[in-house]
Amino acid sequence: MTLAMTPGWWQYSRAQAAKLEADQDAAGAWAGMREAVREQLKAKGFKPSPEEAKPLD
């Protein structure tokens, strides 16, 4: 979560979280991770910069 709050790392953090959630070999171990991190970031009042908040490709 700290990495996601670091300027310049938002997109990377989002992509890594999506990759982990989609990992078939993990048998769902990472399911819900993005939502859990999203809730923690929201509780801290974090918002990424506008250029980093663009949708993932």
Structural account:
The protein has helices spanning 2-5, 10-22, 33-43. The model has no long low-confidence stretch (mean pLDDT 89). The two termini are 21 Å apart. The protein is an all-alpha fold.
Total strands: the figure is 0
Globally, the shape reads globular
Distance between the termini: 21 Å
Structural class comes to: mainly alpha
| Relative strand content | under 5%
**Uncertain residue segments:** none
What's the total helix number? 3
Provide a brief overview of the structure.
The protein has helices at 2-5, 10-22, 33-43.
Please give a handful of descriptors for the protein shown.
globular; 57 residues; mainly alpha
Topology:
Blueprint: H1 2-5, H2 10-22, H3 33-43
